[in-house]
Design brief:
The chain is globular, with a radius of gyration of 23 Å. With 448 residues, it is an alpha/beta fold. The chain has helices spanning 3-19, 33-42, 70-73, 87-96, 144-154, 188-206, 223-236, 303-315, 334-350; strands spanning 21-22, 26-30, 44-48, 101-107, 158-164, 210-214, 241-242, 283-287, 319-324, 358-359, 368-373, 376-382, 387-390, 397-402, 408-412, 418-422, 431-438. The protein has a seven-stranded parallel sheet with strand order 7-6-5-4-3-9-8, sandwiched between helices. It has a five-stranded antiparallel sheet with strand order 10-11-12-17-14, with helices on one face. The chain has two domains: 12-356, Glycosidases (TIM Barrel, Alpha-Beta Barrel), CATH 3.20.20.80; 360-444, Immunoglobulin-like (Sandwich), CATH 2.60.40. It is 26% helix and 19% strand.
Length: 448
Amino acid sequence: MNQTITTTLALCLGIASLHAGGGKLKPELKTHPKAIEKFQDWRFGMFIHWGPVSLKGTEIGWSRGKEVPIQEYDQLHQKFNPEKFDADAWARTAKEAGMKYLVLTTKHHDGFCLWPTAQRPWISATEQRKEPYSISQTPFNRDICKELSEACKKHGIAFCTYYSIADWYHYDWTPRYHDPRPTEGAEMERYIRYMKAQLAELIKNYDSELIWFDGEWPKTWNAERGADLYQFLRNQKNDLVINNRVGKGRKGMKAGKWDPAIHSGDYDTPEQNIGRYNEIPWETCMTICHQWAWKPNDKMKSAKQCIQSMIQTVGANGNFLFNVGPMPDGRIEPRQVARLKEMGAWMKLYGDSIHGTRGGPILPSKNLLSTRKGNTIYLHLLNHNSSASIPIPSAWIKQSEVITGGSVTVAANGPRTTVLTLSKDAPREIDAIIAITLDRSAMDIQAK
């Protein structure tokens, strides 16, 4: 990102913050300032895609009517009995990885609910299902959301809920992916009442701190409906954090195209992509393997890839929401747990350079990222990078330390630039971190 764009972003930050929330349709609704600040402080979270589809090892939602025939997919819940599910183990895994929040797919596009909802979906224009389409209709019949929300509270993890606006099981939602049922008599307003009732359950019964929407892309969901839903949720819980997929502002999987002054939502959501530096709150969601839901022998990212993706995201001023897909028996796959523990070992040593920070003030490049809080700047040098030239006067620097090992030489390069060079013995395979203590607040420095 060039300096002109960055300067413009910095100048517009105050304006954007004033408008973030309900967008131009609900300008009186503002993002809750303390809630969004807390969200940004979390920086690292766990995403969990799970449901009866794990019995097939195919993608959640998207394999319905494709790899798995609809009739078979919709009956998978009758065999879903994850007897080894341990909510405490999940929350403990997140905590040991250095994560601060957890987002569970309570209802994906397939419409199945991981909590005992009281709402019954319509299965035709004139017929309502006799029972809810939920965990209460499985052999397992335990409230996964309750157990997990309580475990998260015990371990100091914020419990958050993913909810798909699109619902390919519910007759009233259209269009439906790979579903041959007719659409005559479908009533979107009836579906919206169903959805709002379910969201109220998630907030009231499980104290969800954040609603992570998805499935907003069909034309049947419009900006007016998104703004109305945003207002409904604000009335339910004023300090709830709501992603931008509640409305229609997201354009594709990359970041930087959402305008909070126009569209509803509190933060941007690039997917499987690391966003560019932005002062507007954002979060990238990324999978530890290839597929969101569990897939046998799915290729997994290396520890280096995982850690560097997190650093690159936070250095660009975003949150890193990292996805795992639990197995049919309810366990997170042991190799995924092991990888998260590797990330946790790194976070235990260097988490101060991630948690509670903001990106900058050095704009990200391929092998140089920076984070900051208080009067400290953390320079992250990736992939054997051994030096950095930063637009910070050397006179501002009180102290420099390589917290990953080794030493650093600091030299002025003119009145406004400083060059920092690592010693040859400094470890730098994944990340060399230089902590720079300034004589002023690092947060007051414009990113460039």
